[in-house]
């Protein structure tokens, strides 16, 4: 097996700027799409000298809540004085958002150097029977190279891209594993039943590595339990080994009492909104408790409280504007819509609710709409600027059918151009009303960048 140095010596730099390198990586999404499987990643890691073996990963999978859980873990570990790498997807504004150390994106200079180092290896693998590595595989390898050869963080919070078992992030052997929950998402790829989806998520469970989950029996929990048992991985399950109880709940501040196998922790504060965030935070706390017990990770209560309270997670129940009030939420499946609907009924007050949505063509739109339609006064349906976008008119037709069944009247507007749709949304939202933008994160990222910076995002997997 040739070393990285040989590759560098024999190949001049392929890219002259970070943007050039990023364009090459992101361009592979259209060309190659998603390529489940670990063989290309295994070959990549071998040729790159296995930098993943130097790092302590916290591997997080789940249908909903994994991004928030990763944000809680990162914030607390940083508050405790640890250097923390994070790898998340999809990113909201810039490609480099997905690879961070202590909240700072990978620097352009490091990205350019590492991609130029990796390019000959990637080209060599493309010539084998395994074929060319995908955009997500290269991004995963880039993150591992940055963490393992440049930044050396104490912990890496490592979010799966899709599923788990065949996801490129599953190349690592973590110190702890998290499966937030199992729901109806990516069923076109992961399987057409909850049990099949659960089996894919459970594929990240490793022999002897503790696993924390908030999955419930109807979410394929038994599949997770059986996998953990087979792998001799200690399972910490919400409702059994740990629990939480809501103490106070107001806008931008909630507290809960945590009870776990090791100790109780009263009055835990969080600033993220929605009842579901208590569950995500409880999963994060149990994960940190396991790190304390198994790996002597030092987590003082003061730092735990500070880290949880300071956690922010853009694009999820995020009030991005106050005049008019515009709330962003990346709910894009039935479970996410149920969570959003619950928050709209309990956390926020409004006279009229105007909701703009845009979806990918692969999602369960009926389940989403069943939760949302009973609440909205105006529904504006648009299309995300992405190649798998869902057709706005087809979505509108589905919404009309469901509204007919509900015997409910809602003003439906179809505007395929999301910027014009956003103008309609804000122009219709008066002082006491609430505007919500929901759906695929590809739409959320565009709207967020446009409202915040008046620029387009560089969104993508």
TrEMBL record:
Report whether Magnesium shows up as a keyword of the record: yes
Q: Which keywords does the record carry?
A: ATP-binding, Ligase, Magnesium, Metal-binding, Nucleotide-binding
EC number(s) per UniProt?
Answer: 6.3.2.17
Could you tell me what reaction this enzyme catalyses? (6S)-5,6,7,8-tetrahydrofolyl-(gamma-L-Glu)(n) + L-glutamate + ATP = (6S)-5,6,7,8-tetrahydrofolyl-(gamma-L-Glu)(n+1) + ADP + phosphate + H(+)
Residue ranges constituting the Mur ligase central domain according to the UniProt record? 60-287
**Which InterPro entries does its entry note?**
Folylpolyglutamate_synth, Folylpolyglutamate_synth_CS, Mur-like_cat_sf, Mur_ligase_C, Mur_ligase_C_dom_sf, Mur_ligase_cen
**What region holds the Mur ligase C-terminal domain?**
315-440
Q: Which Pfam families match?
A: Mur_ligase_C (PF02875), Mur_ligase_M (PF08245)
Q: Does the keyword Ligase apply?
A: yes
Indicate the enzyme's highest-level EC class.
ligase
Task: Kindly give the NCBIfam families that the UniProt entry links to this protein.
Answer: folC
What family classification does the UniProt entry report for this protein? Belongs to the folylpolyglutamate synthase family.
Protein name according to UniProt: tetrahydrofolate synthase
What species is this protein from?
Paenibacillus anseongense
